[in-house]
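[retry 2/3] IS110 family transposase: previous attempt timed out, resubmitting with same input.
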Amino acid sequence: MSTIQTIGVDLAKNVFSIHGVDAYGKCVLRKTVKRNKLLDTFANLPPCIIGMEACSGAHHWSRELKKLGHTPKIMASKFVIPYRQSEKNDPNDAEAICEAVSRPKTRFVSVKSEEQQAVLCLHRIRHSLVKNRTATINQLRGLLSEFGIIIPQGRYPLQKMVPDILEDAENGIPFLARELLSDLVNNIRHLNEEILRYDRKVYRLSKEMKQAAKLMAVPGVGEHSATAIVATVSDGKQFGTSRQFAAWIGLVPRQYSTGGHVHLGRISKRGEKHIRTLLIHGARAVIARCKEKTDRTSLWLQQLVERRGYKRAAVALAAKNARIIWALLTTENEYQANYISG
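[retry 2/3] IS110 family transposase: success.
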């Protein structure tokens, strides 16, 4: 039997398809194993490259396979789809993964540690709470409009005005509706408390994570942005350049060029949506205060806002910060406000 060089694994909950090839690309292993037998199967194989799609459990299996001496590699599903032959099923997916992991231009996801995934769990849970609060606020505003009561936009005006509205016996809201709307108000208050509790956890983590504390020196990068970036990309060395890092976040222009003519459009919005959102929100906060400052970045922003508008300036600053963040992660340098490269 030829020595196995590369293996593709189609991950699932209980049943996994495996496809292995030798140095010449010939299939020498094709089987299906159950979850409790997966590690035993790989423990009996020589060290090899193992490809997997980025999905739930991919980082866990990668850590376990590393312990067995293998080299696991995680990739996005978009890199696998072009290599799938015939119909979509688990064995064909495993074969496509095996082919994709061996291609030189395939980009891989760095394997995260348990600690990194724990920090990302915190961010995801908090994000879901914020979405639930926004949905509840919108529902409350919509239900009040059914009774002819219009609330100004924003959660602070709503939270301030609704208690007085519910206590007003002359506004025509039936008693049952008052009870139900009061329940929604209590839900919003509970969500506020939960979000604040998670915010405090993020603040504590930002003090404990050395890299995160360094990133927070960049204007527009706060505790949430810094901890999310460090937990997601660690030292950032999987990206060859700062532009690759910005492109992964989705902050570079979408390109459609042909015949020597370069056409650049809006930002691509690919990759990591959560980090992109945090960086743009941070950039907005910087722009709001830039008129009061005279450093190089603030002067540049003032001119950019005047020339290109507020929203484009916010995205430009977010992209600039992404490149600075990559430089800080991949080197021992500290942030300098008026730094000029030599």
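[retry 2/3] IS110 family transposase: The chain has three domains: 6-109, 114-208, 222-330.
[retry 2/3] clearing retry counter.
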